[in-house]
């Protein structure tokens, strides 16, 4: 069928060591998935069922681009996260089969308009304006499973202007990646091209224009982005 408007171009993420891109379908995010971060945000770190929110595919900012500080906020926080890129999908995926659906991994930053999020929480409203704004998720190239395996442990870190702000280990995730996929697939039908942001360790904090934010997951990926 012809379209009345030109369809938007696909959102493509680079793949390490490959000339082809990874096409993004949806972006799912896991909230409060590290106990220390749950505590610093004022919540009980007990292993309650995970909760999810979404960003839009075109909120992803590929590597090599600057992050423009968003309007309507004076308190934008960094949150470094492991990124999971899906090559398969389905509904009600068993935990033990979840790794078979993963194409690869990367590192990303869930930038959050914390002041807008606080207002939304207080009013019992959705977080969309705080989370799903333009360029709110800088991401690295995707490292295929064939190159990095399935990292269950490993140092995850973030620095601002060379100062260490966040550091943790993937093994500290309350809900592990296969469990996240299984739980998410109970609520949504996952598909190739879906991207999952798996939560952040403690140490989240503000950025300002001019900051250079670097982050990484040892043995997986690294990323650097300037706030403009």
TrEMBL record:
It holds the Pfam family FAA_hydrolase. Residues 27-227 form the Fumarylacetoacetase-like C-terminal domain. Gene3D superfamilies: Fumarylacetoacetase-like, C-terminal domain. Keywords: Isomerase, Metal-binding. The keyword RNA-binding does not apply. InterPro entries: Fumarylacetoacetase-like_C (IPR011234), Fumarylacetoacetase_C_sf (IPR036663). The keyword Lyase does not apply. GO terms for molecular function: acetylpyruvate hydrolase activity; isomerase activity; metal ion binding. It comes from the Bacteria. This is 5-carboxymethyl-2-hydroxymuconate isomerase. It comes from Sinorhizobium saheli.
């Amino acid at each position: 069928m012809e379209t009345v408007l030109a369809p938007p171009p696909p959102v493509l993420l680079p793949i390490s060591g490959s000339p082809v891109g990874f096409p993004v379908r949806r972006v799912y995010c896991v909230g409060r998935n590290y106990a220390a971060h749950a505590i610093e945000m004022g919540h009980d770190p007990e292993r309650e069922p995970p909760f999810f929110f979404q960003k839009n595919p075109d909120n992803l900012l590929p590597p090599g681009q600057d992050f423009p500080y968003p309007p309507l906020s004076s308190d934008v926080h960094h949150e470094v996260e492991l990124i999971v890129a899906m090559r398969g999908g389905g509904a009600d995926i068993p935990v033990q089969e979840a790794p078979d659906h993963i194409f690869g991994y990367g590192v990303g930053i869930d930038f959050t308009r914390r002041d807008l999020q606080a207002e939304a929480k207080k009013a019992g409203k959705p977080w969309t304006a705080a989370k799903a704004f333009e360029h709110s998720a800088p991401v690295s190239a995707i490292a295929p499973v064939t190159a990095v395996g399935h990292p269950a442990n490993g140092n995850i870190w973030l620095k601002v202007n060379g100062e260490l702000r966040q550091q943790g280990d993937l093994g500290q995730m309350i809900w592990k990646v296969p469990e996240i996929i299984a739980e998410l697939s109970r609520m949504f039908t996952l598909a190739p091209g879906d991207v999952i942001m798996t939560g952040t360790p403690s140490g989240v904090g503000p950025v300002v224009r001019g900051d250079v934010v670097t982050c990484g997951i040892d043995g997986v990926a690294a990323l650097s982005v300037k706030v403009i």
